[in-house]
UniProtKB/TrEMBL annotation:
Free-text remark on how the cofactor is bound: Binds 1 Mg(2+) or Mn(2+) ion per subunit.
Purpose: Catalyzes the oxidation of 3-carboxy-2-hydroxy-4-methylpentanoate (3-isopropylmalate) to 3-carboxy-4-methyl-2-oxopentanoate. The product decarboxylates to 4-methyl-2 oxopentanoate.
Positions of the record's site feature: Important for catalysis: 142, 192
Domain Isopropylmalate dehydrogenase-like stretches: 5-353
InterPro entries recorded: IsoCit/isopropylmalate_DH_CS, IsoPropMal-DH-like_dom, Isopropylmalate_DH
Cellular compartments per GO CC: cytosol
Subunit-structure text: Homodimer.
Catalysed conversion reaction: (2R,3S)-3-isopropylmalate + NAD(+) = 4-methyl-2-oxopentanoate + CO2 + NADH
UniProt: NAD(+) binding residues: 77-90, 282-294
Pfam family, one: Iso_dh
Annotated SMART domains: Iso_dh (SM01329)
Sites where the protein binds substrate: 97, 107, 135, 224
Species assigned in the record: Paranoxybacillus vitaminiphilus
Protein name: 3-isopropylmalate dehydrogenase
Length: 364
């Protein structure tokens, strides 16, 4: 019997709804496979601002650092959109990524046969697409200083800085090559080397790292072309590696292959400490509180946690199989339902997944 301490940060909006679903699914895994998961809860984002006056209280960070892994729902919402920068919910998310050294954000994009009709793209384009976006998460434009407005010669100007150390680029690119070795051995390094000096250094480092991985093919692609290729012919890709903001944008785009943003999980891996697992979507204020959100991105993130942080492969497989079976049986949250047919709520979807995990005859 394994014992694991999991920090849960539900956050705001649908973050709360999907985090609750993932915890229930993990409890079902604990029952089925005889593990003890201890869940400890912390504040982050808008709710933390309202209750503690800061988007990432110190107690939350300490609790996360003392856990075996962290599950995060989502942060943000219109209520805090006009707050000063240091009191925005998103600041809490950026801070926890930086403080916990979560440098590598793995965003797998997997096509499910039964959702072929849910994507606006043609089934023959998306069928069998299976790619992994490796997004740098603690550097680049999101963290460069200065990031400010100021007055220059009587005129208002603004500056955001794109800053990377060579080592920061090297470690994320290396991570992508290591992951590609376990997949289809192809890395597409995405940059804007025709314009940005940072991208020219990125490309140079990618070439250097590639020499250490002769079994992995490296290609370079400009980010604007990559955005187009992702929906024109996604099957050409295996692992894409890119800087923080490019990865943010391309992964939301890539979610369209699967039918919904609500399908994409992610793992934010730490250099040394505990890792964090979060869906790629946000707090979805337009559907929050309506029991409509697709919980699968969060549930699949918890499967990534079992696999990558705890080495519980059979247990992770059980969750992934349950998701596959529930979709194949026709259960759909509103975001992936075709013509609004057979729509289930967030909680019903969670119940269906749990039922399959707990049913001895259904899985394994
Ligand atoms: P969003 O991802 O919250 O929503 C975009 C669209 O996708 C919405 O129409 C939403 O209803 C839909 N959607 C997202 N997740 C879904 C799910 N699980 N099931 C069904 N539909 C889903 O992005 P946004 O609207 O641009 O941002 C809303 C807030 O969330 C902002 O405050 C933003 O900063 C924040 N945000 C947070 C995170 C995070 O915490 N990791 C990520 C992205 C955005
Ligand atoms: C994500 C989100 C965040 C990001 C925001 C909320 C800071 O969009 O996790 O993809 O841009 O990284
Ligand atoms: Mn994003």
């Amino acid at each position: 019997m394994g014992k694991y301490r999991i920090a849960v940060l539900p956050g705001d909006g649908i973050g709360k709804e999907v985090a609750k679903g993932a915890v229930e699914v993990l409890k079902a895994i604990g029952t089925r496979f005889d593990h003890h998961f201890e869940f400890v809860y912390g504040l982050i984002g808008g709710e933390a601002i309202d209750r503690e006056g800061t988007p990432l209280p110190d107690e939350t960070l300490q609790m996360c650092n003392e856990s075996d892994a962290v599950l995060l729902g989502a942060v943000g919402g219109p209520k805090w959109d006009h707050n000063p920068p240091h009191l925005r919910p998103e600041r809490g998310l950026l801070k926890i990524r930086k403080e916990m050294n979560l440098f590598a954000n793995l965003r797998p994009v997997k096509f499910y046969d039964s959702l072929a009709d849910s994507s606006p793209l043609k089934a023959e384009v998306v069928k069998d697409a299976d790619l992994l976006i490796v997004r740098e998460l603690t550097g680049g434009l999101y963290f460069g200083k200065p990031s400010e407005r100021r007055i220059e010669s009587g005129e208002e100007v603004v500056v955001d800085t794109l800053y990377y150390k060579r080592e920061e680029m090297k470690r994320i690119i290396k991570t992508a090559f290591e992951l590609a070795q376990k997949r289809n051995r192809k890395v597409t390094s995405v940059d804007k080397a025709n314009v940005l000096e940072s991208s020219r250094m990125w490309r140079e480092i990618a070439e250097e790292v590639a020499k250490e991985f002769p079994d992995v093919e490296l290609e370079h692609m400009l980010v604007d072309n990559a955005a187009m290729q992702l929906i024109r012919n996604p099957k050409q890709f295996d692992v894409l590696v890119t800087e923080n903001m490019f990865g943010d944008i391309l992964s939301d785009e890539a979610s369209v292959l699967t039918g919904s943003l609500g399908m994409l999980p992610s793992a934010s891996l730490s250099i040394s400490g505990p890792s964090l697992y979060e869906p790629i979507h946000g707090s979805a204020p337009d559907i929050a509180g309506q029991n409509k959100a697709n919980p699968l991105a969060m549930i699949l993130s918890s499967a990534m946690m079992l696999r990558l942080s705890f080495g519980l492969h059979q247990e992770a497989d059980a969750i992934e199989k349950a998701v596959q079976q529930v979709l194949a049986a026709g259960y759909r949250t509103a975001d992936v339902a075709k013509n609004g047919k057979h729509v289930v709520s967030t909680t019903q979807m969670v119940e269906e997944i749990k039922a399959r995990i707990l049913d001895d005859s259904a899985i394994l």
